[in-house]
Design brief:
By secondary structure, the chain is mostly beta strands. It has one domain. It has no helices and 16 strands. The chain has an eight-stranded antiparallel beta barrel. A five-stranded antiparallel beta sheet has the order 2-4-3-16-13, with no helix packed on it. It is globular.
């Protein structure tokens, strides 16, 4: 990990979004409960939506926000997130993305996230950073080698109906500043997603390449901003 001694302040906004990626819509109402398959539920503006736990047309389809609530990606944001590399900044960080459930080749249910955009803001130097490599994907951290990161159900996170959180690696991530690459096709390890009210991602990880060599570092928590909850039941 490369850590410089120069502290930088927050300014500006750098964003990247794959808004053209199609997402499936949701059913109205809360998850019905029961069954061994996952049910994903969200609450927005006091309205509740779900895609059911029995498969059907919702399985293996990426879901952003319900169309009835404006569609688009779910957005997760955090303030004062430290990024250490050839220099050091504390920035507001935002991720945007979609969620899905699917059955792997063994018939086991898995859940995953597709990250389609990211930005640093609230500081002059923060706004100089550009993210790339989208879409990023979550991957079961028990699978080795850790690369590649792709839209493959067999590599997503195993579903556990009793879990209070899910741990994943996230990649392939690119970050540059002023055209200088800092992170190239790398991933974060041990990213924890906690579903429910105030759903959030938490991480404190180096960026690793496919040989698990580390360089830069990111530490923070991103909480859902455009929904009251995002739950996995």
């Amino acid at each position: 990990m490369k850590i410089a001694t120069l502290p930088l302040t927050l300014l500006g906004l750098t964003a990247y979004s794959l808004s053209s990626i199609t997402a499936a819509d949701w059913d109205t109402g809360a998850c019905p409960g029961g069954g061994s398959a996952p049910c994903i539920e969200t609450e927005i503006n006091d309205n509740t939506y779900h895609f059911n736990g029995t498969g059907g047309g919702h399985a293996d389809a990426w879901h952003g926000r319900p169309a009835a609530e404006g569609g688009g990606d779910f957005v997760f944001e955090g303030d004062g997130v430290p990024f250490y590399c050839d220099w050091s900044v504390d920035c507001a960080l935002a991720w945007s993305g979609k969620i899905k459930k699917c059955q792997d080749n063994n018939g086991n249910w898995r859940v995953g996230f597709q990250i389609n955009g990211a930005s640093m803001s609230n500081g002059t130097f923060c706004g100089l950073h550009r993210f790339s490599g989208f879409p990023w994907y979550t991957k079961d951290p028990g699978i080795t080698p850790h690369c590649p990161f792709e839209d493959d159900c067999d590599s997503l996170i195993p579903y556990d109906g009793n879990a209070s959180s899910y741990t994943a690696n996230v990649g392939n991530i690119g970050i540059s500043a002023l055209g200088v690459p800092l992170v190239e096709d790398e991933h974060l390890q041990g990213v924890i997603f906690s579903p429910g009210v105030g759903a959030n991602f938490a991480f404190a990880s180096d960026f690793y390449n496919c040989d698990d060599d580390a360089n830069c570092y990111l530490d923070g928590a991103l909480t859902i901003k455009n929904a009251a909850s995002l739950d996995i039941q």
